[in-house]
Amino acid sequence: MEKPLKITALTPEELVLILSRASRRTISGQDVLAIAETAGIVSADCTINLIEYTAFLVREVSVGEN
Q1: CA 38, CA 43: separation in Å to the nearest integer?
Q2: How many domains in the chain?
Q3: What is the average per-residue pLDDT within 38-52?
Q4: pLDDT on residue 64
Q5: Secondary structure (DSSP) of 8-65
Q6: 2: which DSSP letter?
Q7: Is residue 2, in this structure, part of any structural domain at all?
């Protein structure tokens, strides 16, 4: 039985899988980790919160629109 995903504590690999499936394109683990590190949202146990990750991307996109 697969362990359920916890969207507030995803490994970079789990996040890549979710984002790749959602966007139907290949996303690199290095890119995901680099974005999370830039956002300062990689936790001490090296997991990433999907909500914080998404919020960071939205802020980045909206800054470009202003």
Answers
A1: 13
A2: 1
A3: 97
A4: 64
A5: TSB-HHHHHHHHHHHHTS---HHHHHHHHHHHT-B-TTS-B-HHHHHHHHHHHHHHHH
A6: P
A7: no
